[in-house]
Amino acid sequence: VTPPANFYPPISRIDTTVHTTVVTGINFAFVNVNSPQQVSFTTVTGWNLLSMPVLTPNMSKGGLFPTAVSNAFTFNDDLGYIKHDTLLLGSGYWLRFNAIMVHNFTGLPVYSIQIPVKRGWNLIGAAQKSVPVAAITSTPSGIIQSPFFGYESGYVPATSLEKGKGYWVRVSQNGTINLATTYPKSTSKDIVVENIDNSWPVIIVTDANNNTTKLYLTESSKLTGMYELPPIPPQGAYDVRFADNKYVADISAESYQITLNSVVYPVKIRLENFGEEMYSLNDGIGGSIFEEYI
């Protein structure tokens, strides 16, 4: 079966040398890659981590997102956040809006995207269709060092990359992240899974806007990854983490320093799954004791 020119997915050949049973009743659907498609996605009030799912004639920030109230920022591990006036397919960007917005675009989709990444943290985009994290690969293989993190009032590990969203990923060396909207059912060996046990002691931080973060404690022998969060979001985007940029800490430490970024006070802190230990809550800057025993 060979599709017409300019259609996706391509079928190069049928292997008749393995003597397998003939399979019947399979339906093939081919998509013209030169045919524009309509896509839409929604952004929330405040900072959003987003990407463009299709190519349009005008890829400028102002043309794509005229209601945005910020520049579009991507990230470089050496330079930090960088302003971009033209958006690229496969890149992720921070953009801020003053209200919930629905964005509608007509453009050319790309069904297989090779996203260049550099050693360290990278902001990447998504395709025009959902791609499970388990189907993502890298070149060279094995360079992915973290889960894929989206942003939903705090960083959240993603199980799939959704259209219009942007994601963080950390890699050990320069290479590419490969996204394809058609993929095998087998799980990619490139993906990093950082397990969390719900029985671990957890520090739950909730601000006045009901943004909530869970920070975990456990023995170092139980850690299955780095448990490092991506770089802190722009000013005004809620973020809570341990001071070493992780969301899981070694329980044998005598103290745990937590950084609060762009939270709305008052802030509530709750401990769960702890034993009979007693803890004090101190101001990390001035040393004032907020609660002597919790």
Shape summary: globular
The biggest beta sheet reads: 4 strands, mixed
* Spatial sequence of strands, sheet with the most strands: 22-20-19-24
Distance between the termini: 68 Å
Oligomeric state of the chains present here: single chain
H/E element sequence: EEEEEHEEEEEEEEEEEEEEEEEEEEE
**Sheet/helix structural class:** mainly beta
Beta-strand segment tally: 26
Number of helices: 1
Radius of gyration: 22 Å
The helix fraction, in percent, is under 10%
Strand share of the residues?
Answer: 35-45%
Low-confidence stretches: 11-15
Summarize model confidence as the mean pLDDT: 87
What does this protein look like?
1% of the residues lie in helices and 37% in strands. The model is unreliable at 11-15 (pLDDT under 50). It contains one helix and 26 strands. The protein has a four-stranded mixed beta sheet, with no helix packed on it. It has one helix spanning 61-64; strands at residues 7-8, 31-32, 37-43, 46-50, 54-55, 72-76, 80-84, 93-97, 101-109, 112-117, 120-124, 131-132, 137-139, 149-151, 155-157, 160-161, 167-171, 175-180, 202-206, 212-218, 239-242, 248-250, 258-261, 268-272, 281-282, 289-291. It is an all-beta fold and 294 residues long. The protein is globular.
